[in-house]
Amino acid sequence: MELIQQTLTTPLTQSATLTGYIQTPSAEMPGKDHRPAILVIPGGGYTMVSDREAEPVALAYASHGFQAFVLRYSVLPVAWPAQLLEAAEAMHQIRAHADAWYLNPNQVATLGFSAGGHLAAGLATLADQPFMVKQGYQAADIRANALLLGYAVVSLSATAAVHDGPDPMQQAVHAQDGPLLKEATELQQQVTANTPPTFLWATATDAVVPVQNSLQFASALDQANVPFALHIFPQGHHGLSLANAVTNGRHGNDLEPTVTPWLKLSLQWLQVTFPDAAITA
C-alpha cells in the first residue's frame, strides 16, 4: 500500500488535505489495476474534522477493495463555500490521478458524515452550478458516481430546530454572504435527476441531526427518480461512525450493535451500483 498526501489549493483556501490509501497492483491479484474509489468526508459541525469518521472508515473500505481517501477540509472561521471548493478539488485530484493511483474514474464514491455529509451532498447537488464552473470545475469531473450519507445534515432548518443555542452549522454556512448560500441551506431542494445514486443511513433517536434530514433527502431522490437506499436504525446517538470498537470514542459509549450493519449494507449497495468492480461485502 502507498500512502499519499496532498495539500489542496483552491481559489479560496490552501489548507485542506487529501490523504489516500492506495493499494498497488500485484501479479498475485490480477484484474485490480483500476479499483473503485471512495472519498471519506468526516463530520465535526464545520468546527473540527472528526478522526473517528476519517481513517478508520477509509481503511474499512480499503479492506473491501477500494482505493480510499480522506478529505480534511477547512473549518470555522473559514466559511462556506470554501469547503465546497475543497471537496471539488479533492474529487478533481482523485480523477486526475486515476492511472497513477490505480482507480477507475467512473467508479468514485463520496461518503460524508454529519457536516461532512452536508459537504458531500452539496458537491453532489451543486456541481453544475455556474459558480462552480466559474471556479474552473466541471460537473463531470467533480460529481461522484455514488453518494453515501451517514446521519448527514441536508436541511439547516430541520437541524437548527433541535438546538437551543447557536448552531455551528448555521454559523459556518451563514458566516458570510457568499455564493450558493441559499442552496446550501436546504440541499434536498437541490436534488435533480443528475444527483448520483445515494445510500443513506441514520438513527431514529439522533438528537443532534434529526432523522428528517435523511427522510427529506430520500423523498427528493424519489421525486427525481434517482436510485437510493435508505436505512433508519431504531436507536443510536449522533456520531457513531462505524459504531464498533474500532471507532469507539473517549467516553466509551459509541458501541451500537444494531447500527454496525450499515457498513455491510453500503458495500452490498455499492456492489449493485458498480457491478463490474471487485468489491467484497
Automatic annotation (TrEMBL):
InterPro entries: AB_hydrolase_fold, BD-FAE-like_dom, GDXG_lipolytic_enzyme. Keywords: Hydrolase. It comes from the Bacteria. Signal peptide: none annotated. It comes from Schleiferilactobacillus harbinensis. Residues 32-221 form the BD-FAE-like domain. This is Alpha/beta hydrolase. Gene3D superfamilies: alpha/beta hydrolase. One of its GO terms (molecular function) is hydrolase activity. It holds the Pfam family BD-FAE.
